[in-house]
Design brief:
The chain contains 7 helices and 4 strands, in the order H-H-H-H-H-E-E-E-H-E-H. The two termini are 40 Å apart.
Amino acid sequence: MEVPDLRAHNRRYDWRMLFMLVLMGLGSGRTNILAIAQWIEDQRDWLLVMGFGRGKTGRALPAQATLYRFLWALEKEAEALERALKAWVKDVLKVLGQGGGLKELGLLEISLDGKHLKGSARGGVGDKAIVLVSAYLSRLGLSLLQSKAVGDEAVAGQQLMMQLGADLSEISIPWVLTGDAAHTESQTAKAILQKGGTTSSRSRITRPS
């Protein structure tokens, strides 16, 4: 993955290994750094058998402080990480398209939705909750793009469609958008059609922008 590693030169643990451990912790329901560090300790025996151990004895595993430093560095390269993940998803879709796997699915359904980021609202200092708009392939379990909505969720959705449509057109995949009322404005429908997508019969009845 082409994402710069901004940690100090003393790197006992490989960047990709730490990323994998964080993902496995999240997949096991651990949603904060402390919980992920505890999960690593709880799974010590299994992780060592799988080859995650480091150090002279080969039994050292990353502690909570290591995860903090890793995620701090990763946050600085969030855009690079998003580009790398987006490129990976495109490669997955290309392989499926070449192998004929996507033809069996028919139109590729893309779900567009906005969610408030839990814990991002800080009433004491006047900060509202952050709204993230995502384009998600539910049947493949892949997130294509995600963007922070500045003001209007519908506008953020339109911008995502302009980016996403170009990528899907490049690999010749027919697609259809599904979304809630926030994404039924005429401008969103125009963005979808302009980039080679289609809309359902219901979504053609759009409310004024």
